[in-house]
Amino acid sequence: MRSILLSAAAVAVLSSSAFAAPAQWAVDTGRSKLGFHVVVNGEKVDGTLPFGAVIAFDPADLAHSSIKATVDMTSAKSGNATRDAMLPLPAWFNAKQFPKAQFTTNSITSKGGDAYEAAGVLSLRGISKPVSLPFTLTINGNMAHAVGEATIQRLDYKIGEGKDFAPPTVALDVKVTVDITATRK
Q: What's the CATH superfamily of 22-184?
């Protein structure tokens, strides 16, 4: 009986250390930015969206690493008051009905060196689509800095539908950029 208990204890200790959760990271919202970039009437429009994220990341344990980012769609800023007033409306983000968007990873893979790719699902305006976000990451002690970008098709999420917003008036491609600074918890 004693050997069974010792064996069970050994398995429990080995299991818990072998599957320890990756480090949790707190996003520094003052130093981090989620941006969107689209061409409207031939001009590049840049905007930002407030966001938060729950990040569990360890480059040595990508299988258990994850990111869940939540975006506040009610507070998009593009530097133009008229455009900013339009973005929450039903034709665009429909922020009253869908105030939050979310990106949740299914996997994070190494692409060599400091390059990674987060594959996941972007849920926006009640529509969920797969999205891959390539990013670079540097970790210095308890500080991390990640920069990446992905391109989405706005009509996949029913953003800016209608003949008034058809290309070339508003480009179909929207580049989403992330620049995140985080501290290990």
A: Lipid/polyisoprenoid-binding, YceI-like (2.40.128.110)
